[in-house]
Design goal:
Radius of gyration: 20 Å
CATH topology: Deoxyribonuclease I, Chain A
Order of helices and strands: HEHHEHEHEEEHEEHEHEEEE
Structural class: alpha+beta
Helix content: 10-25%
CATH architecture: 4-Layer Sandwich
Shape: globular
Distance between the termini: 41 Å
CATH superfamily: Endonuclease/exonuclease/phosphatase
Largest sheet: 7 strands, mixed
Mean pLDDT: 93
Number of strands: 13
Amino acid sequence: MHRLGTLLIAVMLAGPLSAQDVSVRFATFNLWDVRTDDLVRNDQPRVRALAETIQRIRPNVILLNEIAYDIPGAPGVPEGAEPGQNAARFVENYLSIPQAKGLSPIHYRTIMLPVNTGIPSGFDLDNDGQIVTSFPIPAPTHPDGTPGDSSEKGQAYGNDCWGFGEFPGQYGMALLVDERLEVVDASIRTFQRFPWNYLPAPLLPVNEDGTPFYSEDEVGLLRLSSKSHWDIPIRFPNGSVVHVLCSHPTPPAFDGPEQRNQKRNFDEIRFWRDYISGLSYLVDDEGETGGLMPGSKFVIMGDLNADAEEGTGVGNPIQDLLLSNRRVRITPPPLLDPPVMDGEDLDATDTAAFGKRADYILVSRQLEITRSGVWRHTPSTWPHGFPSDHYPVWAEIRIPASP
């Protein structure tokens, strides 16, 4: 089985601050709807395969998309448990245990924060004539470890939530950080509740007759993020602080002529353009205003659900807002990390099984991606092909010393 080489950062993490550049491996991986029931155990076969994949890539920093944010009262959450423990469960029950011969465990610090998915709004956000505020018990995971089937009642509930989810916290996010790195906790910023209409000229959907799709009351409270937008600063051994900007915009699909998801996807990506530009209108969940300070180093990561070549959304947000942004270093897209899986009919840049480049690692101009790839190797413990409908994207990033 192909395996990536040893990280350069490992040499520096054991010592004091250095004036040298460091090379760090980042990754982003959409796990495909991993739920609490999968993580309170340590033998879920598909989750074992996901963990094996991460143990082979061995990133220092990895963003996980579609891992449920465990909220008391949500399916599978132990009674009396603290919320947001699923990332720690994934590390303890899977990543800290070698998942195949020759692999070593990985220990991470975990950051898991609230998201909008599956949180009822109290409004009829899909305009189907009913307000749904209670969720049905979701179908259990299939015996092979793939997610349980969706239901009409679950979809009706999800369509009226701040972000689509058939139960509270579904499709959440988590950032895993090498234990030897410092997360600057006091400077973490979240934008879970940032109102969509705070954006200048927001792309709020309209009906075919030109009337607003959302009511005035809904627009006043409607949240931009389908999950959340996070700024998590990490300090590296050479003193540099890098802002890891995490999100998972809604897919530009599953809507009608009003294009509510397509427009939301555009504006969720637009948020990062304005944030790295330091625009003053932005306000986080603690009331602090403004975006990044000029000269800040950053990495934008996540399943952005936008393909510059084959996108289906409104306009071309990934190309127009980020890939051509003067604050973002222009780098070639990550390519398939050979060999190709048998029977694949995908482009070398596709990061999802449905034939799109959806997952990204983008860096500020002060940083440099020296190597990157799309990982499509079948885990040895999983006989059913790849264990997710997305493939991990990894990148080795050179971070200069802080001046």
